[in-house]
Amino acid sequence: MTERIAIVSFAGRFPGAGCDLDRFWANVSAAADCSREVPAHRWALPPDRCADPRVANPDTVYSTRGYYLDPFDPDLTDLDLDAGLVRALDPLFHLVLDAGNRAWRGAETARVDRSRVGVVLGNICLPTDRVNDLCREVLGAKVGLPTGTPTHPLNRFVAGLPAGMLAKGLRLGGGSFTLDAACASSLYAIKLAADELLAGRADAMLAGGCSRPDCQYTQMGFAQLRALAVSGRCSPFDTRADGLVVGEGAGVFVLKRLSDALTHGDTIHGVIAGVGLSNDMHGNLLAPAKEGQLRAMRAAYARAGWHPQDVQLIECHATGTPVGDAIEFDSLRELWGESGWAPGQTVIGSVKSTVGHLLTGAGAAALTKVLLAMRAEQLPPQANFAEPAAGLRYANGPFKVLSKSEQWGQKSGLPRRAAVSGFGFGGVNAHLLVEEWTGSESANSGRTSPPKFVAVDGRNGSVPSENAQAEAIAVVGMGAHVGSWGDARALQEYLLNGEPGEAHAKTNGWALASEPCPPGFYIDELKLPIDKFRIPPKELEETLPQQLLALQVAAAALDDQANGRPKPRGDGDPTTGVFIGLGLDPNTTNFHLRWSAIATGANPDDASPPLTANRTMGALGSIAASRIARAFHFGGPSHTVCSEEGSAARAIELGVRALQARELGRALVGGVDLAGDPRLVLPGETRVPGEGAVALVLKRLADAERDGDRVYAVIRGTGVAADADTALARAAADAGVPRDSALALDDAPTLVGDTGPRPVR
User: Fold this and answer.
1) Which side of the chain, N or C, has fewer Cβ within a 10 Å radius?
2) How far apart, in whole angstroms, are the C-alpha atoms of residue 759 and residue 174?
3) Of 125, 183, 210, 234, catalytic
């Protein structure tokens, strides 16, 4: 038995309820559907100009219904942030600051060392309102659009900075980042936050997920994918189900080790018993696979020491898409087997029928529902369910969907137990198990004594004494494409030559910019063999270079690791995961420019081609990692991570930790950034822009030596903090070496003073 993780506070903001979780629960327990028509002025191209019953017609949607938040003023009580600055930032920042601050204030924090508290949030890497405004400001004039009021430059960093701003406002020093694991993001964030607590690197964590992208973009994109519900109604598992309906919102949870929560006198809303993660190894990026879902679920139950039949409530991923819901239901039936259960013994449902599909925030909404159900001791009903869909093995099976609430009694004296699933585009899977806290340890879910700690120094916190020196990690493969240097060898020769490179103006991407392109180290051309990755030519053409560049260097790193040796053949590699650092590609805002042009009578083709199914998938941030995993049939956790300028370093750290925890046997890590876009170059910028991507293959050093891998370098310690000195001290402690003997090879600068992402050493 091991230490477990307590949820000691949570807060959120959801459609139909705002920040009132009592109202949220009332909506869930009444099986209410909180969808509505899109509010006025939310779309650049008004609904009456783009509504069209034809499915997947360019620049149109066949439904204008969604689950929308009302405007609000964020609760900035006690936050160390300038209110004027916050007002100038995107509504996504407001959403994160509001939910995170409310959650933090609900926990017992007086005895918590804030230098050892971090933030991990799921956040979809798509354009938002203020990023769209920035696009109009920089590029709009060339297509005949008014540029509008100047946008605050920090809105460029909407992918990773919201988590950093929350950490800054709460004066937290444990580091912050966001991740995009598609619809499983919230559960991934909670799992990674729990890892920090279990390893003793943090004493509390804020984790969860948010989603507040441009809602016209998501509506257009899902319409092109033919996934949007024609009915405008989300009906998981129901015979009338015809697609998903998009929602927006956020949920943030404060996590502590259970032993600390008890010591601090926290209210314990639930105890996390286990989380399982996986990635589908086969199929396409849009179709879920039962094999990957089952691996995630089985991993969660193995960690918890539970049987599937121990849970009384399963909060499913179920989005209302008939194919996806059927595969998820079939996965559950296979997990449970054909015996050992009674008909209808466990309730299943999906909160998406009440608040819609919150994308990267979906798991946060789902877990919020489960915790409130435990508090109320009620098994909740599901909205929009009347008759099970044909093809589900529903009759006389172990699962039932409720039309009205039922009392949730305890089973054989055990705590109430529930499961939460998140299955996303790209085959990203997560399954979380949680139980209520009854005030005493149950027979099958206890803990041993809390981990013992040894102080590093008074300022820099502590590390577990049993892990005073982290396991060494070897770099065994490298791939790179930086500027005009198309591979790692060319880059090596340039760097070792010592001669300064010649910067040049970018030859593409600046046609609509009003300012000239500054000299930089740009990638003017990217070539990918059509047959290498089995990507159809049309899909290849319509995929953003960010994804393709990451794929190119990943393949090069894997080839470099193989070093001429034959690559293993088989059904896939479930022990390799992918972690890619990136930010929002501003090219995703081109479609807003197009729709604005249509609305004003300008020529939309001057701005951008129309959003298509391929362009929708080719612009999703999470797919940069998923495309790599799918190309090489990797089944370990695979996702993108954003800490702005520290993103690649954070991706490396996540890969190192997964290897040290023996959750993976190999990690492909790296970063990609096409920073030469006019929307990313700050006015008066003095730094020389550069573009590129780098990928590394990591293994445990002992495994690399056993397998005969070429070892380029060894990573012996990593450290994360809100300032560089503390980060370096923590890295030295992680490596088990004195602070003064550690050498930082990269300054890992913070972004825009203190408000940016946390340096990683």
Assistant:
1) N
2) 10
3) 183
What is the residue extent of each domain of the chain?
Answer: 5-435, 473-585+621-712
Q: Which amino acid is at 540?
A: L
Domain 5-435 has CATH 3.40.47.10: yes
Neighbour count for residue 271 (Cβ, 10 Å): 23
What tokens does 148 get? Answer: 């509008």
Beta-carbon-side half-sphere exposure of residue 103 (alpha carbons within 13 Å)? 32
Question: H or E element: which one contains 464?
Answer: strand 461-464
Q: In DSSP terms, which residues pair with 504 in a beta bridge? A: 520
Q: What is the pLDDT of residues 585-607, one digit of tens each?
A: 999 999 999 999 999 999 999 99
- Of the residues 94, 357, 481, 639, which is catalytic? 357
Q: What's the full length of the chain, in residues?
A: 761
Helix (H/G/I), strand (E/B), else coil: 142: helix
Going by their DSSP bridges, the two strands 117-123 and 176-180 should be labelled as: parallel
In degrees and rounded to multiples of 5, residue 204 shows phi and psi of -160, 155
Active site residue 357: yes
Is residue 533 within 8 Å of 552, Cβ to Cβ? Answer: no
**Gap between the Cα atoms of 176 and 163, Å rounded:** 6
The pTM (predicted TM-score) of the whole model is 0.94
Residue % of the chain over a pLDDT of 70 = 93
SS3 category, 591? helix
CATH top class, domain 473-585+621-712:
alpha beta
| Rounded distance between C-alpha atoms, residue 46 and residue 38, angstroms | 9
Q: What is the pLDDT of residue 118?
A: 98
Torsion sign (Cα): 49, 53, 56, 61: positive
The pLDDT of residue 750: 28
**Structure tokens of 151?**
């946008």
Q: CB neighbours of 638 closer than 8 A, spacing ≥ 6?
A: 279, 426, 428, 577, 578, 579, 625, 626, 628, 629
Task: For residue 228, give the DSSP letter.
Answer: B
- pLDDT number for residue 742: 60
Q: How far apart are CA 88 and CA 128, in angstroms?
A: 14
Measured between alpha carbons, how far is residue 160 from residues 92, 425, 497, 581, 758 in Å?
A: 11, 20, 35, 10, 10
> How far is it, in rounded angstroms, from Cα 688 to Cα 676?
9
Does residue 183 have an active-site annotation?
A: yes
Query: For the segment 351-361, what is each residue's pLDDT rounded down to a tens digit?
Result: 999 999 999 99
Confidence of residue 648 (pLDDT cuts 50, 70, 90): very high
d(CA 699, CA 697): 7
Burial grade of 703 (CB within 10 A; 0-12, 13-18, 19 or more): middle
User: Which helix H or strand E contains 118, and what residues bound it?
Assistant: strand 117-123
The three-class DSSP label of residue 261 is helix
Q: Please, what's the b/e burial string for 337-370 (b: 16 or more CB within 10 A of its CB; e: otherwise)?
A: eeeebeeeebbbbbbbbbbbbbbbbbbbbbbbbb
Verify whether residue 317 is a known catalytic residue: yes
Burial of 237 (0-12, 13-18, 19+ CB in 10 A): buried
CA-based nearest residue to 177, from 234, 246, 104, 123: 123
Residue found by looking up tokens 């063999």 in the block: 529
Domains 5-435 and 473-585+621-712 share a fold: yes
User: Radius of gyration of the chain from Cα atoms?
Assistant: 25
For residue 618, the one-letter residue type is G
Active-site annotation holder among 264, 317, 431, 639: 317
CB 207 within 8 A of CB 192: yes
Structure tokens belonging to residue 630: 């799918």
Q: How far apart are CA 327 and CA 287, in angstroms?
A: 9
Q: Which two tokens stand for residue 242?
A: 């015809």
Please state the rounded mean pLDDT for residues 244-263: 98
From CA 246, how far away is CA 433, in angstroms rounded? 25
* 13-17-23 Cα angle (round to 5): 115
Tell whether the model's pLDDT for residue 33 goes beyond 80.
yes
Report how far residue 156's alpha carbon sits from residue 152's, in angstroms, rounded to the nearest whole number. 8
Rounded CA separation 215/245 (Å): 11
